[in-house]
Task: structure prediction
Amino acid sequence: MKFTKIHHVAIICSDYQKSKSFYVNVLGLKPVREVYREERNSYKLDLEVNGHYQIELFSFPDPPKRPSYPEAAGLRHLAFAIENIEEAVSHLKQHGITAEEIRIDPLTGKKFTFFSDPDGLPIEIYEG
Result:
């Protein structure tokens, strides 16, 4: 088996409009396609990261809660590469989002930090 890339990451949100606004208006991801699936009472929004379709945002009625902090078993977090972490943290702050203190990766010397989406999903931004 030879993988060529990660195709997408699927995120189920508890408040579709709130999460859609967060990912589109705050993080700046570009909507590619939005569909409502009546048989599932569910929206699906495909989002683009820097010209590549990579995020699927779903709504489902009453999704179960899941542990979502970075050290929980399972998928640890979603990480985005960024050119200027200070600018990104300032942008988040302007939107009322608090990021953790910027840290330095001891192995690469690169800056990184974490913040959360509206459902508490840990998101990392990594400079470089």
User: Anything to note?
Assistant: The mean pLDDT is 90. The chain has two helices and eight strands.
